[in-house]
Design goal:
amidase activity; alpha+beta; 6 helices; MGlyc_endo_b_GlcNAc-like_dom; Lysozyme; globular; two-stranded antiparallel ribbon; about 15% strand
Length: about 130
């Protein structure tokens, strides 16, 4: 969770995180009933990076943003199906996030793993 928050929010420096408490880059899909905000984001489509405007979830508090991230992963079964919760290591979990469609960047797992290693985040594993 820590590595994802670091990566997705540019270490808390993104406007999405600092203004809207969305540290995980969670988009506001059609079923989202809460507040949202439009931001430009980069996505990989057919191996090429493009910039698109997307709606993202906006939260009133940091606690709301982190709590919704947990709910988001639990209710979207693709994360269970692709091993996000059953991965034996953080490295395998990083790969499972990509497989489940959390991100479109093919280098997403390695970026997470690099953050985990750089800051020795395995020490916080439960």
């Amino acid at each position: 969770m820590i590595a994802q928050a670091c990566l997705e929010s540019n270490y808390g420096r993104s406007r999405l995180s600092s203004l809207h408490h969305n540290y995980f880059g969670i988009k506001a899909s059609a079923g989202w009933k809460g507040d949202s905000v439009i931001y430009s984001t980069q996505e990989y489509v057919h191996g090429k990076i493009i910039t698109v405007k997307q709606p993202f979830r906006s939260y009133s508090t940091l606690t709301d943003g982190f709590a919704d991230r947990v709910r988001f992963l639990q209710v979207n079964k693709r994360y269970t199906i692709n091993g996000v919760f059953s991965s034996p290591t953080p490295e395998e979990q990083a790969k499972a996030f990509l497989k489940a469609g959390y991100a479109t960047d093919p280098a997403y797992p390695q970026k997470l793993i690099s953050i985990i290693q750089k800051y020795n985040l395995k020490q916080y594993d439960l």
